[in-house]
């Protein structure tokens, strides 16, 4: 069974664009199995970010339907975690408090956040230790390197045990060494916890290294296509 199921999905960003038939994504059909790690590569402007907005329910398709975990998506999903190119940690919060943020926001955690804070903090510390950030819990973002901030932002995306992790160019701003270190960390976390991952990247090597399946989103005049090209066993 598919965890993510896009069925002939079209999106125009507004009515004016719709009237002109200018779609940001056009007729996308794509199925992602439970626990599968997919990567989407493609040139700038081909619709990768739009695909992510659709996958997490931030945008509704103009046509077609999207099912996540067997249910039609009708609004923003709480079962996803997200990380982007910029780590975007809140500067006035420590590493630990940044990682705890989703638990303060996402139901059902929010209702008992105060009562269970120490339990949640233990969980966050374990997660931080698993990405090599033990001892940095009380530091502020400016006291961390770019790679460390990105690791913390991945912890923040995973703290509420999402079923799906959406990553939009999360390693793009890092040096090559740090990037490859983070690839291994992400692969280990995903192998242990089996969440779904959708990774958008410009880096084909990254896509092939990390993903079970790599899709190329291509741009021919006025048309966006998603095509499965490579299926590799995990090394
Ligand atoms: P990237 O290529 O890194 O995904 P973009 O530079 O394409 O990012 O887009 C950055 C932001 O600007 C996105 O949130 C996108 O939705 C928005 N955006 C991109 N193109 C347009 C546009 N033509 N009109 C309005 N917003 C846009
Ligand atoms: P990518 O992430 O692959 O760079 P996007 O999904 O950002 O591509 O953009 C796909 C197309 O949709 C582009 O033509 C872009 O200009 C357009 N677009 C993106 N966001 C908006 C927006 N908010 N309003 C109007 N057009 C947009």
Which key features would you list for this structure?
single chain; 235 residues; alpha/beta; 6-stranded mixed sheet; 4-stranded antiparallel sheet; 32% helix; globular; binds adenosine-5'-diphosphate; ABC transporter ATP-binding protein
Question: How would you portray this structure in words?
Answer:
With 235 residues, the protein is an alpha/beta fold. The protein has seven helices and ten strands. It has helices spanning 15-19, 48-55, 95-105, 117-130, 146-158, 176-193, 204-210; strands at 2-11, 25-33, 37-41, 63-68, 71-72, 80-84, 164-168, 196-201, 213-220, 223-231. A hairpin with a 2-residue loop joins strand 9 (213-220) and strand 10. The longest helix has 18 residues, at 176-193. The two termini are 24 Å apart. The relative contact order is 0.20. Residues 13, 24, 42, 44-50 line the site of one adenosine-5'-diphosphate (ADP). One adenosine-5'-diphosphate binds at residues 13, 24, 42, 44-50.
Summarize the structure.
By secondary structure, the protein is of the alpha/beta class.
């Amino acid at each position: 069974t598919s965890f993510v199921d896009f069925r002939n999905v079209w999106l125009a960003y507004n009515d004016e664009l719709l009237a002109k038939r200018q779609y940001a994504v056009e007729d996308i059909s794509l199925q992602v199995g439970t626990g599968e790690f997919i990567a989407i590569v493609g040139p700038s402007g081909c619709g990768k970010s739009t695909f992510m907005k659709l996958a997490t329910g931030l945008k509704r398709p103009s046509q077609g339907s999207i099912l996540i975990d067997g249910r039609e998506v009708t609004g923003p999903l709480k079962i996803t975690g997200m990380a982007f190119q910029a780590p975007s940690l809140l500067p006035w919060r420590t590493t630990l408090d940044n990682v705890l943020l989703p638990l303060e926001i996402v139901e059902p955690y929010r209702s008992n956040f105060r009562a269970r804070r120490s339990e949640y903090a233990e969980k966050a510390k374990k997660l931080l230790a698993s990405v090599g950030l033990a001892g940095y819990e009380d530091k502020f973002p400016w006291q961390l390197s770019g790679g460390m901030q990105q690791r913390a932002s991945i912890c923040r995306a995973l703290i509420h045990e999402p079923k799906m992790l959406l990553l939009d160019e999360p390693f793009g701003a890092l040096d090559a060494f740090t990037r490859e270190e983070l690839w291994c960390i992400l692969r280990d976390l995903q192998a242990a916890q089996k969440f779904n991952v959708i990774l958008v990247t410009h880096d084909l090597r990254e896509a092939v290294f990390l993903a079970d399946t790599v899709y190329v989103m291509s741009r021919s005049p006025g048309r966006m296509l998603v095509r499965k090209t490579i299926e590799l066993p995990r090394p």
